Amino acid sequence: MAEVIPFKGLRYNLDIVGDISKVTTPPYDIISKDEQEYFYNLSPYNSIRLELPKEFPGDNEEHNKYNRAGETLREWLDQKALLREKQDCYYVYQQEFQLDNNKTYIRTGIIGLVRLEEFSKGIILPHENTLSKPKADRLQLMRACNANFSQVFGLYDDSEQKIPTIIEGYYTNHKPDIVLEKSVVGSIERIWIVDDADLTQKISEAFKGKKIYIADGHHRYETALAYRDELKSKNPNHTGKELYNYVMMTLVDMEDPGLVVLPTHRMVNNIKDFDFDSLLEKLNKNFIVEEYKVENYSLTKKQQTIQDILDKMGLHTFVLYSGERQSLYSLSLKSVDVMRGYHPNRHSSYWNLDVSILHTLILDELLGIGEKELAEQKNLEYTHSITEGINEVEKGNQQMTFFMSPTTVKQIQDVSLANEKMPQKSTYFYPKLITGLVFNKFC
User: Which one of 2.60.40, 2.70.98, 3.30.160, 3.30.1760 gives the CATH number of domain 263-408+419-424?
Assistant: First the structure.
């Protein structure tokens, strides 16, 4: 089963770089061009210069953004702007945040190295398909820098709560080594450095026998696998103990009270010859459709009504809001068995996903938004905000929004164990892990 070990992480030397809030970023894959520019200007030591380096005119195979990232890393090491730990460590990583309900959540994980395993072994389990272009990009960066700059986000199932108990016993009796009062993702971030050899061994032992479920970072994980295979083939003295056989991960217990998955609502646009009455009629085949008049409702009341419907009716229920009506429509699936006819060769865990039901029975079947349209990024946009889903329709930017409940952690586990893959944009773990707290250099 999974092998998890401590490591000598690279961390910023705050005597040189200053405020750590100036050098951390969100994950590279959610950073826009404008945000990239912002982080570049925030500090000459910002981690954006490693994780998402700029392209320049005239770049070629020898001089490009990847090589510049490698040169930057070497410069920072020479300047001692980055320092390697003197002994192997785990890093307890806590994020404190609030949602729209004003409730405070604290998600606690541990950063360590996880041995890379082929998915076929059933030790590290994915739930998403990946795309070749992002993997090619990350592989070139890894070749140039020989490092992990951001963590893969993994989950583990610990019904006996051994690992969370060990972690809690440490952080409740020690002050955090790093604190960001407000991070780039809006959370309070805390890091405790665990370097006691007996305790790190105890943590490693507790992970034996566990499976790791990838929550976020599938492209980074598969890239690390490819890089391992490259280095292994070039190393006649390969032992399997080299650091390139591992990937840096943040691991969170599936029962952690701060583990939050947000819904990803679907906004639909540019459907030609769209007829709303015809859509409602067709929806009645597989769904119980109820209308809620909201003509005189404020934005806040509409938002609350949508949330109340989803909370009350639970899984397999959607809420439709269209610019053609001043009404909301709840859509409750009559029977999940209908999914068997569309996907006879897929596991029941796939049929039971709300996102699978929405894409199969509504988006594809009734609106013509199938795999081709999704790949071409036609007709569909995404939001985690009910407010944005309403506003975009009322502004005329979207024809309709389908609001849905979030995928549950149990569903993610079931799909992963069944060797199934979810549709794109099925999960959104909040908040994102930030980059820049600790790096992993392979040598």
Answer: 3.30.1760
